[in-house]
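Intended use. Records such as the Geranylgeranyl transferase type-2 subunit beta entry shown here are meant for training and evaluating sequence-to-structure methods. They are not intended to support clinical decisions.
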Amino acid sequence: MSEIKVEQFPVKLETEKHLKYLKELNNHQDELEYWLTEALRLNGIYWGVTAACILKHPEIYDFKEMTKFILSCQNEDGGFGGCTDHDSHLLYTLSAIQVLVICDTLSEVDKDKVVEYVSKLQNPDGSFSGDEWGEVDTRFSYCALSCLKMLHRLDAVDVPKAVEYIKKCMNFDGGFGSIESAESHSGQIFCCVGALAIVDRLDVVDADKLGWWLAERQLPNGGLNGRPEKLEDVCYSWWVLSSLSIIDRIHWINKEKLINFILSCQDADTGGFSDRPGDMVDVFHTLFGVTGLSLLGYPNLDKIDPVYCMPVSAIERLNIKTRTYNQI
């Protein structure tokens, strides 16, 4: 892609405002919303710390205290809950491992217990359940394989069967759904393409067919949607772009129009990003607005790995860099 320059855009990235917003996320304990979102606390930490890293200011967080909290969320079964004393789930377990990797404190967790928890959730058909209650979703395939890759323990599960299940979830349009026969969705596509990249099986993907479907997600206002006939949303700046990046088709979208859309979704007063202009900001959309800009080459941002949604520097430290489609 051609080099992006800040001067090209009528709105600039409000980096200082976003850092202030991220730093103050835990200062709302007198508000009801803070406690209603307790189950997402661990996910929220991952979203916040990753955004801060991409904005090049991880020091706004205390990694020692963060690690202490993360470890308090690990249960006897080896998995992690969304907060202390919450039930284990693969979604939270992945966020826990991601944060520990970013903080460079992965050595402090009981890795064998995590591996045991994750491996027990693989089903006979190769799919993964999210927790002990058995819900199956391709999101969980990604979570499991990503966790194990970061722990260097993919040997703990049946990878060929995991790949076969993901292949069953591929549709005629080249996309992937949450389960077999479910419609294609940008978020699920990231999970499936990312999982295949992790186990070096991108040969399964029809890059041109899938790339076309993903490129069609860009609307006239520059934003991306998750599936046909839906509204644009900043979070798809990650789910769509990351998949396009992995299959080497990111140049198929209009990057300038997308950057303009993403920047229009920031709150210039409080900091943070919303799903679309004028809505309330949240840390989820803040992360995916920032990571979308990083993938597009926006200046003065750290690089994000499109497979793991983590800083490239953290992935390089683990020595688990995956091949993209053009390297097959």
